[in-house]
């Protein structure tokens, strides 16, 4: 319980830190989005700060870090109290939504406070590498664990969770990141469609099986989803009303997504292509290219510590992937082939002769309805739920999509197709360019 309380309090202090960073950019958003985005960005900033703290071998010196964490958090609240409290939404009929959301999150607290068992990745590397770094007192190379070279901003939070309260502290941060993600989803929806739509969106997102399940694990996917999803929606906001602050927020969130997981590149590709495409169709190519460049440069700057570390240590910024392109220390062609063979055991469309791209519709449907065809071992908690597919189809064919909504659909389509870059990450880099071209064509069709 001590670890869980530490994670909750630390995350609430992170809201103040996030307000110091992006307070002016989110001030016109509903209160849910303000808290969600400030909380997520604040925790991301703490994770990046921990990276540098660990590079200097100071992970064993937690007290000064905790003191700075608390001081900046309180300072953020003092300076932005009005921002974080004004515009409280009246409860009224919203009490039912709030009650259901509270029940959903309270249901996952026992998982946070129980030893991890079924969530294998939490044990095998998510918390394992964080514990090794904590024991070493610094961010060292863990040569027997390739995952330790992945961007690990969320895992940096796990370091402090493990330090104070073991795995329960680490999982507590995932629980809070899931809460921030739900607040953000509801708040951004309310900003465009009104309060009731925001409540429905928050509830729909919280009820997605894989979202709810991962709230009780130590997976970095929870934070990654918050950052990548926010970057996508905020870029669409810019396409809709051309307010520059949305671009800055999108770039910050995109940077944290890239600093959390390599798959952020898929969302980055979708955001960049869509910005260029939509403004290009309006004969504003320069605006589209400039917008994509702003998001891309800001994102790469934020995420650069992790990729720079990899380049310095191994010669490969995305180690151990793309070995055929960059090479990499302590890796080989055989390692790359073994990794690729393992990855090809997952999903639908993998055959002995290569990828069958025509299986993609069935793969997406299976991810929603029959996750046992996607994962080993099968588990219903891996599903995104049928409403995801139904919602997108209804949206596409309703004939009522606004410009920014069409942009979201284009990004989703491009991101789904760009997921084929998974093949590129396992060695077949030529497939990446073919799928990127297909993604661009799909974006044109969706517009």
Quick recap of the structure?
With 447 residues, the protein is mostly helical. It has 20 helices and two strands. It is globular.
Run of helices and strands: HHHHHHHHHHHHHHHEEHHHHH
Give me the count of strands: 2
* Poorly predicted ranges: 421-437, 443-447
- Note the beta-strand portion: under 5%
Q: Largest sheet at a glance?
A: 2 strands, antiparallel
Give average pLDDT, whole number.
82
- Radius of gyration in whole Å, from Cα? 21 Å
Q: Whole-Å distance between the termini?
A: 50 Å
Task: Name the helicity range.
Answer: over 70%
Q: Count the DSSP helices.
A: 20
What spatial form do the alpha-carbon principal axes imply?
Answer: globular
Briefly note the structural class of the backbone: mainly alpha
- Main-sheet strand order equals 1-2
Q: How would you sum up this structure, described in words?
A:
The structure is a single chain. The chain has helices at residues 2-26, 31-55, 62-85, 94-107, 109-112, 120-136, 153-193, 195-206, 209-214, 221-241, 244-258, 264-281, 285-314, 323-326, 333-343, 360-369, 386-397, 403-418, 421-425, 429-446; strands at 350-351, 354-355. The termini are far apart. The relative contact order is 0.10. It has 447 residues and is mainly alpha-helical.
């Amino acid at each position: 319980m001590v670890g869980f309380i530490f994670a909750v309090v630390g995350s609430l202090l992170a809201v103040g830190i996030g307000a110091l960073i992006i307070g002016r950019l989110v001030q016109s958003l509903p209160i849910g989005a303000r808290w969600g985005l400030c909380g997520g960005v604040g925790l991301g900033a703490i994770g990046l700060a921990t990276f540098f703290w660990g590079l200097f071998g100071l992970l064993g010196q937690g007290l000064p870090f905790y003191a700075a964490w608390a001081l900046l958090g309180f300072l953020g609240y003092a300076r932005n109290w009005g921002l974080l409290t004004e515009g409280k939404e009246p409860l009224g009929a919203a009490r039912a939504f709030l009650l259901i959301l509270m029940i959903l999150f309270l249901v996952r607290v026992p998982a946070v406070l129980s030893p991890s068992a079924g969530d294998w990745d939490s044990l095998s590397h998510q918390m394992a590498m964080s514990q090794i770094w904590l024991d070493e007192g610094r961010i060292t190379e863990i040569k027997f664990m390739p995952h330790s070279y992945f961007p690990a901003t969320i895992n940096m939070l796990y370091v402090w969770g493990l330090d104070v309260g073991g795995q329960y502290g680490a999982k507590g941060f995932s629980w809070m990141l899931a809460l921030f993600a739900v607040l953000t989803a509801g708040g951004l929806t309310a900003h465009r469609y009104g309060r009731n739509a925001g409540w429905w969106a928050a509830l729909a997102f919280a009820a997605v099986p894989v979202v709810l399940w991962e709230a009780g694990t130590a997976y970095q996917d929870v934070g990654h989803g918050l950052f990548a999803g926010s970057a996508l929606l905020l870029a669409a906001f810019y396409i809709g009303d051309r307010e520059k602050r949305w671009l800055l927020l999108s770039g910050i969130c995109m940077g944290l997504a890239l600093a959390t997981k390599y798959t952020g590149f898929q969302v980055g590709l979708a955001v960049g292509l869509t910005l260029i495409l939509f403004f290009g169709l309006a004969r504003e190519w320069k605006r589209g290219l400039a917008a994509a460049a702003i998001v891309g440069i800001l994102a790469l700057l934020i995420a650069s510590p992790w990729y720079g570390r990899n380049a310095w240590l191994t010669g490969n910024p995305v180690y151990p992937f793309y070995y055929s392109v960059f090479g990499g220390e302590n890796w080989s062609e055989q390692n790359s082939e073994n990794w690729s063979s393992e990855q090809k055991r997952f999903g639908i469309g993998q055959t002995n002769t290569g990828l069958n791209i025509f299986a993609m519709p069935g793969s997406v449907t299976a991810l929603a309805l029959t996750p046992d065809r996607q994962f080993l071992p099968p588990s219903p908690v891996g599903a995104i739920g049928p409403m995801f597919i139904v919602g997108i189809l209804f949206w596409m064919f309703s004939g009522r999509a606004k410009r920014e909504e069409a942009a979201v659909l284009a990004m989703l389509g491009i991101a789904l197709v760009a997921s084929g870059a998974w093949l590129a990450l396992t060695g077949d880099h030529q497939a990446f360019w073919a799928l990127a071209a297909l993604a661009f064509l799909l974006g044109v069709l969706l517009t």
